[in-house]
Amino acid sequence: WGQKMDSPDSDRLSVNSNGSEEQYVSNEAMRLIPSAYEDSPLILDLVKRTAGEKSFVDLSGQAAEIGDRPKVHHKKLSEWPATAICGNDITSSCLYVIGVSTAVAGIWAPVGLLFVAFILFLYRNIYAEVGSALPLNGASYTLLLNTTTKMVSGLAACLTLISYTATAVVSAYSAIDYFINIYPVPVVPCVIALLVFFAILTILGITESSVVALIIFIIHLATLAILEICAIIYVVKHPHIIVENWHAPQPNPLGPALFYGFGAGMLGITGFETSANFIEEQGKGVFPKTLRNMWIIVAYLNPTLALLSIMTMPMEVILNNSSSVLAQMGLTVVDGRWLGILVSADAFLVLSGGVLTSYVGVNGLIRRMSLDRLLPKYFLQTNRWRGTTHWITLTFLALCSSLFLVLYYSYGDDALNSLAGVYTIAFLSVMTLFALGDYILKYKRRRIPREFRAVKISIFVAGAGCISALIANIIMAPHNLSWFTVYYAITAGMVLLMYFRVKILKLVIHSIPKGRYTKRLVSRLIAHTYAINHQSLIFLTSSDKISHLNKAVLYVRENEITNNLKIVHIYEEETPALQTIVDNVKTLDSIYPKMKIDFVGVKGAFGPDMLEAISIHYGIPKNMMFISCPSSQFSEKVDTLGGVRIITTTD
Predict the structure, then answer these.
(1) How far apart are CA 416 and CA 187, in angstroms?
(2) Could you give the CA distance from residue 431 to residue 462 in angstroms, rounded to a whole number?
(3) How far apart are alpha carbons 270 and 139 in whole angstroms?
């Protein structure tokens, strides 16, 4: 590049006159080395670096070759199979939310559930806007990763991990609770056995099929329809029950009953976010339809089932059977046990499917976080037999089992309410962050084209509703916040440990005393530290403005663990802007002596094939490539770029 600019950290040597690279030892590297080892040739050799450089490469041929390869077109999910996958999650929640909501709201539970349906209606447009702007798997993690910092998205992902954990445990516990109505079994061994069973299935590579999900979904809705018809007939014959419940003592006065009933009822929309986790597998225009279908089903089912339970059973019976209230309704409204057994069998089936969905979802999220270097890479290890990520599954199994055992032996039969409380706190936190993320998307990524736009006031009301429900749940059961905090601290601690691991390694290196046997240990730690920093990242730019390029460098410095950044400009014909970008990158390489900033000019046409060619040529995965916010004139859709991250705006 030429001589570095004068600065206290300008320690990098220029490229020699003959064009060869000259190595240097940066001041940053010297700060890493303890003073006792500064003269060690072995250690100094580990930290030699090279100055930034410019290069030009023609990858148009490789991109064309990639484009000519036969494309494997995976069949996209249509409306109802996609609805079934997420619909099984959200409709299964009625199996336990009716009892939980009635326990705090009494006869006002159906009204609280109507308020929940209103909040969910607002979230339809919020999710639709995000899905049309960023049609990528990952829901809140992907949204926040493309609109905020990497640390914020990582900490938000921890909430999703806790939500998945609580989903699996609540579903497994509720499934066994309903199965007991068919055949008495011990709770603890069966819940653990169910979690282990689906862990084995996940390791074997047996995941949720859309066809199987659709069959389960149809059976589930048919079962609930039969239950409602029988319940309505029973109400006509026994109208006195609702009158008795109306005059019976209520758990809370009207105001608190509605507030707490609404808070508890928000548990009934868990699963709404599931559709955003597999949006890339859905056909064009399917995603907003799944949101609409889920809202219609929940807005009808939850309030009507809550109302029918109050009209068919005494309040005392509902409260005593809160964890399996629909099965108890089935036993009440018909002669014999057939409807109760049918509801229990259906509940066991659909709730068990929820456990499998959690395993599949958490595998995808942890794999993405590991690729983004927010979790350890050992999670990416696959077994030789099935090629699945077994460490993710086994870690998730351990987390779920420990959460269940701790809460069950602490609260006994009330463990379900505690589990539901932990689940609700995590879920409502994720929903609140999603609303906040959509608001940030409007502000920081407003140039991204989208088909749907949520009104700002609706985003505010939806977020406020989730915060209100979160407060209600914490007031109702403060101890749930303690358990949530413990498990969140564990997962967030692992993310923060990975995020700050270089600083921690530096601290460890400087803490090791000089000795005969420690020199090689120190050299290995330094080598490991520089191996972490050696991962190259790519920023793709079409702008020649140095302020725009500087924003990208600042983002990488603040969010990524690397000392190597390649600024890539793809061009078809040379223009004056090309030389301007070269000069500006050279300037930035001088300004930031702690980073090696290279310029790479790539001849060819921008597109998914070119990005694949660049990834192969430099050995850098596409999730390590960044771009600025695209405009409506952008030739490609974000979801075709293979996970390239949006980090800046050219405004």
Answers:
(1) 12
(2) 9
(3) 14
Q: Please give the Cα distance from 226 to 230 (Å, whole number).
A: 6
- pLDDT, tens digit (0-9, with 9 covering 90-100), for 226-281: 999 999 999 999 999 999 999 988 889 999 999 999 998 988 887 788 888 888 88
> Per residue in 109-146, pLDDT tens?
999 999 999 999 999 999 999 999 888 888 889 999 99
> What's the pLDDT at 413?
67
- Pick the closest to residue 123 from 332, 299, 348 (CA basis): 299
Q: Please give the single-letter amino acid code of residue 215.
A: I
The interaxial angle of helices 338-371 and 325-333, nearest 10 deg, is: 160
The backbone torsions φ and ψ at residue 602, rounded to the nearest 5 degrees and listed phi first, read -115, 120
CB atoms within 10 A of CB 59: 22
Could you tell me which of 529, 568, 434 has the C-alpha nearest to residue 119?
434
Residue 543 tokens, joined: 């702008």
Q: How far apart are CA 439 and CA 435, in angstroms?
A: 6
Closest CA to 406 of 196, 167, 192, 95: 192
Q: What is the DSSP string of 537-569?
A: EEEE-----HHHHHHHHHHHHHH---SEEEEEE
The pLDDT assigned to 208 comes to 52
In whole angstroms, give the CA distance from residue 546 to residue 541. Answer: 11
CA pair distance 297, 285, nearest whole angstrom: 19
Sign of torsion over alpha carbons 433, 435, 441, 443: negative
Give the CA distances from residue 182 to residues 175, 219, 223, 256, 277, in Å, rounded to whole numbers and listed in that order.
11, 18, 16, 36, 34
Chain centroid to CA 370: how far?
12
- What is the rounded distance in angstroms from the CA atom of residue 285 to the CA atom of residue 460? 26
Q: Residue holding tokens 């084209």? A: 449
**Mean pLDDT for the chain overall:** 84
